[in-house]
């Protein structure tokens, strides 16, 4: 039975639109029933909540859900809404997908939608005393002058639930008891890899609970995009994660090109793929360096940074940038590759392959490193899928989640490479996945570098780019996992809504689950091997 028929069987009043992606609109009162059936039905098994996006359509507020089945490989886009803008309420799906926890808090933070049966309806990024909801179309930013007072940290939160008669009741949940010993790790701490704060409840040296606090670096990129043209939005994607700058821009350009029906040349596809894989090696070298430094191995840190500079030199010659890569464009790339690009890339790969053995000699085989990482911070495959922990973290838990294999794009269906999968789900597995992926990235580049075809590096585009009306989604395998872009267009030169599927938010949302029962020192190894980047989380 087709998914559309199954949805209509469960919710006959469901409506379907095929402007861009196929989207099913579900009445709010039927939404949880349908979501539960889609999650657990043997023929459906939508166990992966890829993205959850808050929306303001003017008269209504709502949410768009992108669901996938890791068993069957199919996907569906659902949306539900409420016309009550004063007290908007929708059913929570946190009981079905753990990824919904932080995503629903994000929607509450920016749109004010409260989710029934969500146990923690606090803001995720903004201060609790923030006035209004910034991603609403009628938001008035004059309501929030600069506040110089410290924010009070609350230890209670509200849960909206239904009683036996179907009436809404408010219930207070306690986050940390007065008797608990709670310490702050971050937001100024080198091992949080950015301004991220973990409130940690300890019993001796054992972690009882961790509550992550995001928002210390929030820059409102998704709000800014609503007043930028599509080419202008590209400048902000590089800043989300400078270790995935090429890949992030690639995702946005792919989404716009898909919406407009633009076919780019094979030369462009080759160049984009090579740049993405160089970026992955760049990211994994920094991961190696920082993970080693967090565990006290300073020599390994210098090794990784020394070799990463060689990639940045290659980037700079072609793109003009080392960290910020304003290179991939809608319909192509900014400029052709440097005359020495092919030669320098081949020299770098010939250099790095034997050097990787030194990496393993100096750090991987070290008894201290192994004791700090093996059997520490285990994430099960089921939890990885439920939280949406893609990338190296998911593959270390046995989940074959590589977007390059599941949804091939660019040249990935034309090259031979292995998806690196470990099953232990611990810190060491997460570390080894990334180290092995460096070799696979080099293998991909070697198959392409001598065969870059002639042709244009930029397809001719209209001076003003207008995306056809509809909703569109595209994703790539970025350095830290599946980076997705959702665009809803009303046919203008500005996106009505542009949402980024963060690779890091699922990783941080899983920290509490991974660390419970571990030692406080283990948090450092766990954070290092999850490999999140904070600006990507805060967006």
UniProtKB/TrEMBL annotation:
The keyword Repeat does not apply. Its EC number is 7.1.1.-. Its main location: membrane. It is found in: Cell inner membrane; Cell membrane. It holds the Pfam family Complex1_49kDa. Residues 294-462, 465-539 form the NADH-quinone oxidoreductase subunit D domain. It catalyses: a quinone + NADH + 5 H(+)(in) = a quinol + NAD(+) + 4 H(+)(out). It is a peripheral membrane protein. Residues 25-140 form the NADH:ubiquinone oxidoreductase 30kDa subunit domain. NDH-1 shuttles electrons from NADH, via FMN and iron-sulfur (Fe-S) centers, to quinones in the respiratory chain. The immediate electron acceptor for the enzyme in this species is believed to be a menaquinone. Couples the redox reaction to proton translocation (for every two electrons transferred, four hydrogen ions are translocated across the cytoplasmic membrane), and thus conserves the redox energy in a proton gradient. Belongs to the complex I 49 kDa subunit family. In the C-terminal section; belongs to the complex I 49 kDa subunit family. This is NADH-quinone oxidoreductase subunit D. It comes from Bacteroides sedimenti.
């Amino acid at each position: 039975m087709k998914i559309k028929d199954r949805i209509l069987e469960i919710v006959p009043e469901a409506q379907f639109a095929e402007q861009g992606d196929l989207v099913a609109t579900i009445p709010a009162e039927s939404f949880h029933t349908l979501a539960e059936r889609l999650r657990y039905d043997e023929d459906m098994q939508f166990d992966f909540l890829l993205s959850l996006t808050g929306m303001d359509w003017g008269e209504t507020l709502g949410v768009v859900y992108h669901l996938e089945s890791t068993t069957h490989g199919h996907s569906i886009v659902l949306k539900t809404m409420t016309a009550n803008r004063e007290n908007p309420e929708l059913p929570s799906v946190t009981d079905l997908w753990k990824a919904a926890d932080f995503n629903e808090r994000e929607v509450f933070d920016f749109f004010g939608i409260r989710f029934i049966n969500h146990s923690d309806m606090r803001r995720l990024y903004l201060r609790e005393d923030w006035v209004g909801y910034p991603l609403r179309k009628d938001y008035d930013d004059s309501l929030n002058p600069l506040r110089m007072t410290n924010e009070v940290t609350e230890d209670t939160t509200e849960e909206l639930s239904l009683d036996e008669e179907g009436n809404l009741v408010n219930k207070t949940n306690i986050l940390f008891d007065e008797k608990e010993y709670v310490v702050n790790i971050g937001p100024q701490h080198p091992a949080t890899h950015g301004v991220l704060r973990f409130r940690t409840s300890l019993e001796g040296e054992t972690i009882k609970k961790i509550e992550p606090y995001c928002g210390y670096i929030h820059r409102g990129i998704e709000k800014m995009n609503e007043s930028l043209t599509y080419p202008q939005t590209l400048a902000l994607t590089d800043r989300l994660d400078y270790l995935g700058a090429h890949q992030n821009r690639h995702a946005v350009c792919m989404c716009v090109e898909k919406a407009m029906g633009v076919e780019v040349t094979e030369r462009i596809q080759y160049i984009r793929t090579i740049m993405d894989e160089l970026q992955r090696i760049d990211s994994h070298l920094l991961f190696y360096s920082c993970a080693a430094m967090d565990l006290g191995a300073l020599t390994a840190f210098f090794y990784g940074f020394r070799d990463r500079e060689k990639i940045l030199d290659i980037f700079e010659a072609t793109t003009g940038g080392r960290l910020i890569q304003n290179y991939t464009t809608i319909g192509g790339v900014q400029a052709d590759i440097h005359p020495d690009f092919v030669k320098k890339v081949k020299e770098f790969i010939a250099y790095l392959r034997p050097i990787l053995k030194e990496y393993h000699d100096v750090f991987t085989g070290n008894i201290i490193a192994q004791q700090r990482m093996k059997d520490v911070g285990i994430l099960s495959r089921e939890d990885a899928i439920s939280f949406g922990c893609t990338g190296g973290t998911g593959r270390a838990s046995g989940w074959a989640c590589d977007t390059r294999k599941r949804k091939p794009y660019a040249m990935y269906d034309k090259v031979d490479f292995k998806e690196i999968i470990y099953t232990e789900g611990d810190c060491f597995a997460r570390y080894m996945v990334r180290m092995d992926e460096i070799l696979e990235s080099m293998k991909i580049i070697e198959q392409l570098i001598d065969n870059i075809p002639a042709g244009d590096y930029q397809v001719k585009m209209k001076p003003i780019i207008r995306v056809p009306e509809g909703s569109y989604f595209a994703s790539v395998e970025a350095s830290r996992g599946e980076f997705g872009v959702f665009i809803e267009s009303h046919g203008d030169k500005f996106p009505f809504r542009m949402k980024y599927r963060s690779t890091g938010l699922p990783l941080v949302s899983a920290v509490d689950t991974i660390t419970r029962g571990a030692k406080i020192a283990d948090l450092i190894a766990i954070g290092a091997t999850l490999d999140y980047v904070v600006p990507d989380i805060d967006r």
